[in-house]
Write a structure and sequence with these properties.
The complex is a heterodimer of chains A (about 425) and B (about 170). Chain A is α/β, with parallel strands linked by helices. Chain A contains 14 helices and 17 strands. The chains are: A alpha/beta (about 425), B alpha+beta (about 170). Bound molecules: pyridoxal-5'-phosphate (PLP).
Chain lengths: ~425, ~170
């Protein structure tokens, strides 16, 4: 299977990012009479016409049940559906499409691994290592499992810049460690974690690894084999595709040992009332009729991202981040939470005089959409002793002008609240 | 900016910076916590009812956004001296006003200064900030300080307790 990252992107034409906005219809919206500046991309992303059109076309001309139709029309739909599995495998650098499981989202991906692999392989006194930068979706399934099994959760601490303390990780990793589950990119403060090093060390210690890629997959080139993880989860709606769909990558050897999670139609070899045998991966993990049109949409999103080029996306978002960091950090009384050297295009901040929620409302009145709150990462907020932050998260379709509007809006908030 | 000026009236900034009745109370007869997990706003309401069921004193502690803090501050100022029945009536009028479930009659002056919170209804994501302290007040009145619910708790007090702890 040809790997996408073997393509030499230097030969690609430069991308005109100003034109790219026209490909995302939502970005032309207005809110409260102001043009929408959509800076909540870490929560969910907007869809390009390529995705919207492909789903519409599929629904209007090609839709049928997949993997169970005895007629040509359904076989064609199945072929389109399964093609996407191949695309996802290439997109993530997986060795085979059989390692790609469709889920309902990153949350379901982690729950699946905890509820099936975890239930089977984690026992009394075993240790699970998480980091202090996790989304609740990569904490709670492990906490439930640990409570059920009498396992122990250990947490990699974070330094003041928002980076993982890798020396402490070395100390936490023991022969009792069964699993290391860390996020690739922290949704709350943007830190990019050294997942390759973490996975290599974990594997050397005999532990299985899960990387939460929900915030990474849309913004950088992912190669799960280079990362060396056993599991990788992501959400389609954070990568310009529809919600209600996610991907779980599982390394073949690990996935084969993993028992089913949800059971039902379409994931079996043979069912009798006495005993049933289950299909091999990936179908073993896809009980019931899947999110068919959404999968087709994900395929279109991957084609779209490939056409722009992940390297170009990464570079453009870095520029946006640098510009935003420069403008926002210059504002008096702003405190940026998380200043990791390796950082995705996410700025989380607090103001001395205004609560994050008030700041978000002031920005909203200027048409700027940001998130305020704990970002489903309360342990991270606790680490930085803040109840909440305001968070602006960028995509390559954002503009430098939007960054300036953000900075202006924050200034306005500081002035209003300083009084 | 026009909407935003409707929401953030001058006195909201004032009460945010200098909240009234912002302290713990040692001899409270009623108290309750309120928490909004969405934005981390936290409040603890203290009430002291006297023998004739009048709010002799009311105060709060906690942390959160300006809308929350100003709302708690205005609330404590407004209900001090009211009977429990009047206080509960004010709560329900206030909730109706900010959720927009009923418009205050133009000639109804009973909301007094509290009417500055009317603009909140234009910002649905902020309604919970404005109502947190009020739900906590109801919760406090529904139970005594030892945590036991008063026998006079209204039939929907369970639902309200839910609001206080989960929204
Ligand atoms: C890092 C991270 N992990 C997991 C999730 C959960 O994703 P979903 O809600 O799509 O299942 C999110 C989404 O906010 C996230 O940012």
């Amino acid at each position: 299977m040809a790997k996408v990252n073997e393509i030499d992107t230097r030969t690609w034409p430069q991308v005109d990012f100003a034109k790219i906005r026209d490909q995302f219809p939502v970005l032309a919206s207005t809110v409260r009479g102001k043009p929408l500046a959509y800076l909540d991309n870490a929560a969910t992303t907007q869809k390009p016409w390529a995705v919207i059109d492909r789903m519409r076309e599929f629904d209007s001309r090609e839709y049928a049940t997949v993997r169970r139709g005895a007629y040509r029309f359904a076989e064609q739909a199945t072929e389109e559906f399964e093609k996407v599995r191949g695309k996802v495998a290439l997109f993530l650098g997986a060795g085979s499409a059989k390692e790609i499981v469709f889920t309902s989202g990153a949350t379901m991906g982690v729950n699946l691994v905890a509820g099936s692999w975890g239930r089977k392989f984690i026992g009394q006194g075993d240790e699970i290592i998480l980091s202090n930068l996790e989304h609740h979706a990569n904490i709670l399934p492990w906490q439930m499992l640990a409570q059920e099994k009498g396992a122990v959760i250990k947490v990699i601490p974070v330094n003041d810049a928002g980076e993982l303390d890798m020396e402490e990780f070395d100390r936490l990793l023991t022969d009792r460690t069964r699993l290391v589950a860390v996020t690739h990119v922290a949704n709350s403060i943007g830190t990019i974690n050294p997942v390759r090093t973490i996975c290599a060390k974990a594997r050397a210690a005999g532990a299985v690894t899960l990387v939460d890629g929900a915030q990474a997959a849309p913004h950088m080139k992912i190669d799960v084999r280079q990362i060396g993880c056993d599991f990788y989860v992501l959400s389609a709606h954070k990568m310009y595709a529809p919600s209600g769909l996610g991907v779980l990558y599982g390394r073949k050897e690990v996935l084969e040992q993993t028992p089913p999670f949800l059971t039902g139609g379409d994931m079996i070899e043979r069912v009798t009332f006495e005993k049933s045998t289950f299909a091999p991966p990936p179908h073993r993990f896809e009980a019931g009729t899947p999110a068919t049109t959404q999968v087709i949409g994900l395929g279109a999103a991957i084609d779209y991202l490939d056409s722009v080029g992940m390297e170009h996306i990464e570079r453009q978002e870095k520029k946006l981040l640098d510009y935003a960091t420069e403008l926002v950090s210059r504002i008096e009384s702003v405190d940026i939470v998380g200043n990791a050297r390796d950082k995705a295009a996410i700025i989380s901040f607090t103001l001395a005089d205004a609560h994050p929620h008030d700041v978000a409302t002031i920005l909203d009145s200027e048409g700027i959409a940001v998130r305020a709150g704990h970002h489903c990462a309360q342990p991270t907020m606790d680490r930085f002793c803040v109840p909440a932050t305001t968070r602006a998260s960028f995509s390559f379709y954002n503009t430098f002008e939007e960054v300036e509007r953000l900075a202006e809006g924050i200034k306005q908030a500081t002035e209003l609240f300083r009084g | 900016m026009s909407d935003i000026n409707e929401l953030y009236k001058r006195s909201i900034f004032d009460h945010n910076r200098n909240p009234r009745n912002f302290h713990a109370m040692e001899n409270a007869s009623h108290s309750c916590d309120g928490y909004n997990p969405l934005c981390g706003d936290k409040v603890h309401i203290y009430v002291r009812l006297d023998g004739s069921d009048t709010v002799e004193d009311v105060s709060f502690t906690g942390s959160g956004c300006a809308i929350f803090k100003a709302s708690a501050s205005f609330m404590t100022s407004a209900i001090k001296g009211m009977t429990q029945v009047q206080a509960r009536e004010t709560v329900s009028k206030f909730l109706d006003m900010v959720t927009g479930s009923s418009d205050p009659e133009p000639e109804d002056k009973s909301m007094g200064k509290l009417s500055i919170f009317q603009g909140v209804r234009e910002f649905p994501s902020r309604v919970k900030c404005a109502t947190l302290a009020w739900h906590a007040l109801t919760c406090a009145l529904d139970k005594s300080t030892d945590g036991e619910k008063a026998s006079s708790a209204t039939p929907d007090s369970e639902a309200r307790k839910d609001v206080v702890s989960t929204e």
